[in-house]
Design brief:
CATH superfamily of the largest domain: Gcn5-related N-acetyltransferase (GNAT)
Strand content: 25-35%
Structural class: alpha+beta
CATH topology of the largest domain: Aminopeptidase
Number of helices: 12
Number of strands: 14
């Protein structure tokens, strides 16, 4: 497998169609590995999470000239102060990351990648530092086997909980499968919201003409929470805007709102990709706290996901209690380090 190095964002953008096609057949399909998400991330270096970095995307091509594997890397100084090759999206912005390859091509791509990284064209690096890889990713044993074959130091550590709900494709079947008390709470809160004197409605943003105003409304809802307000620096707001617009243009943004009397009471920023709903962020107007608007909107979204035959509802990183009360099944993301 031949490795081509991409050091400029313009060259990465030219690879968009091939990149997304490779992802469609890769062992791990997640929205954070889409070209449009990674390109948006790079333009702000993760909303200012990184002060600097050098792009080093490795694209692996077979003898037939087809893109067979890819590692979206950048060179920076990691949190331990080492010269590290990290995945675009690290650490906080992208919940799930990985390298891209068809399962049958994965071992060959990992081998070619490490050949390049130990060759004369590689930058001076100390550690391949890969965050947020799901614990069942086939990339992990492939990386470990190749590292050990070369006598490199390979370590893997568990990071965060990532609960998700396998969906049965039917709302009532889903409800029957969760705790009885929680099932009652979901129904009770939806009935209470719908019985309000002020009309309650929910919707998913579909009109491109209103997208910018809807994005700003969502960011304002997020900012009602003190921790999220601190998170939403101006450059982070720019990152969020870029990511939402890119996802909308590509057809996998699910930006949803619950309105009470025409006022936005809650919002969810999700991604509807590869038959999964990926729950990315949320915001609530605390003036409506008595109606539990976040729970109500979550209920509507779960009902929609079942009715539209999505396979899973992924809460991604974080072990908040509500995720398990809605039926979340636990799993983890890991951090892998390969040291020279």
């Amino acid at each position: 497998m031949h490795i081509k190095v991409i050091r400029k964002i313009e060259d990465f953008d030219a690879l968009a169609v091939e990149w997304n096609e490779l992802l469609r057949f890769s062992a791990r399909q997640v929205p954070f590995l889409r070209h449009e998400f990674l390109s948006a991330w790079w333009r702000t270096l993760g909303g200012g999470e990184w002060e600097r970095g050098d792009l080093l995307i490795l694209a692996g091509y077979g003898k037939d000239g087809a893109l067979r594997g890819a590692a979206p890397l950048f060179l920076t100084q990691n949190r331990e102060g080492a010269a590290a090759l990290m995945l675009l999206g690290s650490l906080e912005i992208a919940d799930y990351l990985d390298i891209l390859a068809r399962p049958a091509d994965l071992p060959a791509f990992v081998s070619a990648m490490l050949d390049f990284l130990h060759g004369p064209q590689a930058p001076d690096w100390q550690v391949l530092d890969l965050y947020n890889i799901l614990e069942d990713s086939p990339s992990l044993p492939a990386l470990q086997a190749e590292a050990e074959r070369r006598g490199l130091d390979f370590t893997q550590e568990k990071l965060q909980h990532c609960p998700y709900i396998p969906l049965p494709g039917d709302w009532e079947t889903y409800l029957a499968g969760i705790d009885k008390k929680q099932r009652h709470e979901i129904r009770r809160k939806i009935r209470r919201a719908e019985s309000q004197e002020q009309p309650v409605r929910w919707y998913i943003v579909e009109d491109s003409r209103s997208l910018e105003s809807e994005i700003e409304a969502f960011l304002d809802l997020m900012a009602q929470d003190a921790d999220k307000r601190a998170f939403l620096t101006e450059v982070m707001r720019q990152q969020m805007r870029l990511a939402m617009k890119a996802a909308f243009d590509a057809g996998w943004l699910q930006l949803a709102f619950l309105e009470v009397g025409g006022v936005k009471a809650a919002g969810y920023l999700n991604f509807d990709y590869a038959s999964h709903i990926w729950v990315y962020n949320s915001g609530i107007d605390y003036d409506f706290s008595s109606l539990s608007p976040g729970w109500v909107l979550m209920g509507y979204l779960l009902q929609w996901a079942n009715e539209n035959k999505r396979e899973a509802f992924d809460f991604m990183r974080g072990d908040e209690d509500y995720k398990y009360r809605f039926g979340g099944v636990d799993r983890f993301v890991v951090r892998v380090r390969v040291k020279r």
